[in-house]
Predict the structure.
Amino acid sequence: MTEKILNGIVSKYECEAKKNQSIAPYTSFRIGGCVDFMLFPQSTEALAGACCELKEKGIRFMVMGNGSNLLFPDHGYRGVVVVTTELKNITVNGNIITAECGASLTKLAGSALENSLTGFEFAYGIPGSVGGAVYMNAGAYVSEVSEVLKSCTCFDTNTCEILTLDNADCDFSYRNSIFEKSGNRYVILDAVFELSKGDKDVIRAQMNEFMSKRREKQPLEYPSAGSAFKRAPGYFTAKLIDDAGLKGFCIGGAQVSTKHAGFIINAGGATADDVTSLMKHIQKTVKEKFGVDIEGEIRIVE
Ligand SMILES: Cc1cc2nc3c(=O)[nH]c(=O)nc-3n(C[C@H](O)[C@H](O)[C@H](O)COP(=O)(O)OP(=O)(O)OC[C@H]3O[C@@H](n4cnc5c(N)ncnc54)[C@H](O)[C@@H]3O)c2cc1C
């Protein structure tokens, strides 16, 4: 029954499909089991149309961008993972950049540079998509998406309508937004960013400096999902983890990076259970030693 509906969606909308696929290669952690069905919409209309049908037919689904902030369980996902990575158009009009949800942040930063636009340098090197970045208000080096996002077009899964949310509607806070708070009610189709005219050489130098810092400080040679924990107010979380003596600590194939204690890496063959057990161990140890609660930043799929 479900398969018939899914085949109907594929033939009605512009979507590629994969069945019984391991999700691991689609995530930066390289972890996760088999997904029943994956859909790759080829246009934002197809993304909205497919999500509308899935919702109306009561088929469980979730939307994923580059999979760089997600941990899928070892048993995979029963339902449909809708992947946005084919939706990567970026258009520039004066100081306004409009990007489809699957566009890479690094490419977007490159477009801003080409057009001498400043404000997006911070996102250069974040391995995510526009949709994922808006969803979690991605940020780095004291800047974040909320500072440059003007509006975004979304599909509302409650009403099956397409609507525009302005920056203020997105209810942004540190690594959070209406998109997460509403329990995935909205699918982001595209986003509009307002940048400022700047000096190309200065923008390029800033981007290169951020990239060098990433290469120097982050364990980019290993699969991970970036910082495993949010910043605890008043603390540097990586320092707390380091001071708790946890650098290099392993559970199975999951390890606290020896290069950056805020990262959990897949040192080889890590399972989702290894990662979640390690996260719990870190949280417990930091709480016992310093009395500080640290909250996970990685989205754990159930
Ligand atoms: C090496 C490394 C470095 C990183 N550095 C940073 C950093 O400096 N700063 C930072 O903030 N993050 C960082 N990250 C984490 C991650 O790259 C960002 O959070 C990124 O914005 C996630 O985008 P994504 O496309 O990969 O999202 P995904 O991981 O695919 O999804 C994340 C969440 O967004 C939702 N989502 C994705 N697309 C849509 C959409 N179109 N509509 C609705 N919901 C959607 C998903 O359902 C999921 O809940 C890093 C990760 C790695 C691996």
